[in-house]
Structures are given as C-alpha cells and as structure tokens.
Amino acid sequence: MKIANDQQGMALALEWAAKGLFITAPNPRVGCVVVRDGIVLGAGHTQAVGHAHAEIQALADAQHRGNAVRGATLYVTLEPCSHHGRTPPCADALIRAGVSRVVSAISDPNPLVAGAGLERLGAAGIEVVTDVMRDAALEMNIGFFSRMQRGKPWVRMKAAASLDGKTALHNGVSQWITSAPAREDGHAWRARACAILTGIGTVKADDPQLTVRSVATPRQPQRIVIDSRLEIDLSARVLQGAPVWIVCAHADPARQAALESLDHEVICLPNASGKVDLPQLMRELGRRQINEVHVEAGFKLNGSLLREGCIDELLLYLAPSLIGDAAGLFDLPALTSLSGKTELVFHDVKQIGPDLRILARLT
Q1: What are the E-state strand segments in 163-310?
Q2: Residues 295/265, Cβ–Cβ less than 8 Å
Q3: pLDDT tens readout for residues 255-294
Q4: Which residue of 60, 62, 135, 341 is 20 to 30 Å from 200, comparing CA positions?
C-alpha cells in the first residue's frame, strides 16, 4: 500500500489501532505505522497492559522486515508517552530510532503526558504534526478520554425494541424482538467495553450470563450487578465463571460473606434515599480504571441512570415491527412541558440486517 499523504498514513494507523480494540484496557487503543517515500516500513498496535505500545511494535516490525527507520515518518493515533509507567517512554524510543517526523492524531489526555511527549520530540529536532484525523482517534478511545478528563468511564446504554419503543411483552417475553445480526452486533459492542452492567431486576427476570458469545474476543468484560438489597440468587448464571462486582445500598454481612466466598466482590454505595448512589458508582469505576461501561438493563434502572446523568450515549436497535401496549425503554417521569425533554443528537445510524441501529448521544 502506497501512502500518499498524512491522512492516508493516519487512516492506516487507525486500522492498526482497531486491532487492539478488545485487549488494551485500561490503556488506550493505539496504532502506529512507519513510512518512508510512501512505503510502509513497519506497523503495530498497543498490546495488553504491561506489554509493548504501538510505537515499539511498529519499530520492531520494521526491524524484523529489515527496514531502517532513520529519517522516516511515523504516524501514531495518540501522542507518544513521555513517562515511565509499566513500560519505558515511547518518545525516547522514537528519538533513539532517529525518525525525522512524527504525525500524531491527538494529544494524550493523561496528565502524566498531556503534550510532554510531543514537546520532547520537538526538542530533539523531530518535526511534529498534530490533529490529523483527530475526531476518529478520539472515537477510538472515547472511554479513555472520559476517564482521564472526567474521572469516570464513558457509559453506553444498549436496548433493543420494536419500532414503537417496546422492549418486552407484559408477561416478560422479549426473545427475540430484533434479529440475529443485531444481536451479534450488540455482542461486538459488549466486547469492546471494559464492563457490562445490569440490575437485579434483569437478573431475576432473564437470568443472563452477560458474557460475549457471538463474536471472538480474547477477554470477557467485567460484569457488574446493581442489587440494592443483595437479593441475587447464588445460583444465578451471571455469578458463574469470573468474579462479579455486586453493588448494593444495604449492608448484609451474611449475604456479603456468601458472595465473597465465591470470589465475588460486594461494593456498598448508598445514597440518601437508600438506593445505590449511581454517580458515585461511576466515579468508583473510573478509579478502578474502567474506560467504557456497556449497560444492558431493564426500564427501571435505565430510567434511573438517565435521570442521574450517568449515561453518555444510547445504542438502540429498532426492529421493523409494532408490539403495542407493552414494556417500554425507560422509566422516566411524565413531563408537563417539552422544555424538560432529554435532548440527544444522532451520532450514527445504520441498518443491521432488517433492524436499525441508532447511536444517539446526550447533549
């Protein structure tokens, strides 16, 4: 592939970043390519935490191919790091390698970097170009940016409904309103998240596993259940396998001990009303280095999360069908004026099989 300009170089780096979509958390997904005279010398993406970053992978790939990188241009989807973390600074490696030009899509929001990497490169005489395909790079790591800048993860609420906004019949039947392609697509969104969150109502009604099954993934997201009174049945399918975080509002030492004996963790975060403090939970998840949360819950918890300002975007799958009087998407209070409506913007709309996928962000 011949690289004719910076946009093409960065587009290829973003393709490499996507290869790390499911593995890099809590680190950002970063891609990197090294180019000279339009020829790709090496490419790579950030590996699992504690292993090589994208720049190091790309330099090693070039060496493996027998390509010298001195004087080359390096395209990277996030500013090279300048601090010693689990791995040494990438900026120093690029300086030693002798690249002459670094094109970065976006500055690193991590306060330990935040422009310092680009400054170090510039001070070493390397030409630095920034903000190439910035928006696409931000989308790739929207959860990482959220955690670094707001101290909490990016929260995506997924729901599947009929065209008239119904998610289940009054008798609880909901399988399946949307098609197999839509369900598979939903699992891909699960896979990219750091955590999947639901409520005790969904656990009781559906007994879900909350795992990624329809797409290949090297790791499963952390599962979280909001259960104010620790009512969860110890035989629930969600409690099988890897440890689960159960978030409560009322301490119950006996129930907590039973859950902890199965390696699950109980987190008690009550608010003044005796419910789980949802905003505090989001801050706690940020502290635990959770970048993206994928919510699959019932209309009551959906409404609570929306009312308390905990949702950043809605991932809605709408089937071309009408159900009529049935369960809805959200438990929200009735309005007396349209001025109180929740405003959203359509970020992406796409047909998935026979269904419509809408990604809408709160303003």
Answers
A1: 166-168, 195-199, 222-226, 244-248, 265-268, 292-295
A2: no
A3: 999 999 999 999 999 999 999 999 999 999 999 999 999 9
A4: 341
Q: Which amino acid is at 147?
A: R
Task: Tell me the Ramachandran region of residue 261: left when phi exceeds 0, alpha when psi lies from -120 to 50, beta otherwise.
Answer: alpha
Residues catalogued as catalytic: 55
CA pair distance 219, 296, nearest whole angstrom: 19
Measured CA distances, 189 to 163, 182, 186, 231, 359 (Å): 21, 11, 5, 28, 11
Q: How confident is the model at residue 340 (pLDDT cuts 50, 70, 90)?
A: confident
What are the tens digits of pLDDT across the range 294-318? Answer: 999 999 999 999 999 999 999 999 9
> Contact, 226 vs 295, CB < 8 A?
no
Closest among 74, 144, 141, 70 to 104, alpha carbons compared: 74
166-168 and 327-328 beta bridge pairing: antiparallel
